[in-house]
Amino acid sequence: MIRDRKDIPLFKDVSEADWSDYRWQLRNRLTTTEDFGRVLNLTEQQKAELDACMGKFRVSVTPYYASLMDPDDPHDPVRAQAVPTPAELVIHKEDIKDAVSEDFDSPTPRITHRYPDRVLFVVTEMCSMYCRHCTRRRLVGHTEDLVAQEQIDNAIKYIERATEVRDVLISGGDPLVLSDDRLEEILARVRAIDHVEIIRIGSRMPVVCPQRITPELVAMLRKYHPLYFNTHFNHPNEFTPESKLACDMLADAGINLGNQTVLMRGVNDCAKVMKKLVHRLLEYRVKPYYYYQCDLAEGTAHFRTSVAKGIEIYESLRGHTTGFGVPTYIIDAIGGGGKTPVYPNYVISHAPGQVILRNYEGVISKYTEPDDYTPGDCTCEDCEEEKQRLGVAGLFDSAVPTMQDVWAARMQKVVDRKNRMSDVFGPAKV
Description:
By secondary structure, the protein is an alpha/beta fold. It has two domains: about 1-340, TIM Barrel, CATH 3.20.20; about 380-425, no CATH class. Helices cover about 30% and strands about 15% of the residues. The protein is built from 16 helices and twelve strands. Strands 1-2-3-4-5-6-7-8-9 form a nine-stranded mixed β-sheet. A three-stranded antiparallel β-sheet has the order 10-11-12, with no helix packed on it. Strand 10 (about 345-350) and strand 11 (about 355-360) form a beta hairpin. Helix 12 (about 270-285) crosses helix 13. The chain starts with 15 loop residues before the first helix and ends in a 5-residue tail after the last helix.
């Protein structure tokens, strides 16, 4: 149950106008053990442990999100995402600073270009709240200064030169910590690039600081359609009237909403919790998009689950609830392998002309393939232009490659992309 903020000593004298102002929320974030002690009922040992955590990874929590925490339960799923514990000071041998190799695939600062037709554009290192499970903790929170304009200019220059890029994801940090004017300056410049078809924004503000979703912000965003917005609900306790209003305002402006959840031990590694989460998202008009296996980022081992648990949760959703409400289970492969879907095996066996399947209930069935099938002769202009299958399917069109060939091709893409900025940084060295 959400506490009345008037019952919380730190917030009891805050006016409604201040509480509803995102600027007040950002100015008054909890950053010290003393701050948390005025919101949570901490033991002396918990205070000492919290003191020990300060300074390793950035700590900052909005008053709004702090008000959602159970003051007496250190295992509360909201509290676990925001308040550091000594577990994150333990660095395991499998931990990696840049867990998904974003820097490796960066042809210019602030850009990661891993997939063929889309890029990640990190426009800030700031967040309103620094999540304890953050995969980008090597980067975010070390400074709350604005990103150098030269880096923003070079990032946009790269997007202009990379004519295959049709999709730009603007992320951070959290891009909504920027002012409306600063964010619009970036959006307008990206939208002006002819080959960019869609823009996406990744922000946790609807969850941790929904006051940031103002009529003025929404009016500005709707000028840059088609615009997509991905947010980050992890637990049903994060749904509040304020978060619903934020999502409603965005959806009413025609902005498509998606959600990316991180699967975390003790937070949402329960099939019933995850089902309740996706059901509430659909009520909010937010498409459950992904749920991620927790990355190997430093200090996050205590959140990680087994992959078997992630598959079990998928089994509990597929067929048991609305199909488009089932998010894709993803492992973001180390070494820059990218987002890899992980599914239960619904194909039990495959023989010539026949496929044996099982459904979500365990019912076994057979599908008979046509015995006279040959691929259709496609005459679309794209196929006529280049008779080449992409990705893994392309292996059917060539001699069997070695792992060395595959890796060499990957490295060549990295070099080619970096060389687009050779006039700025010199020839690429990987």
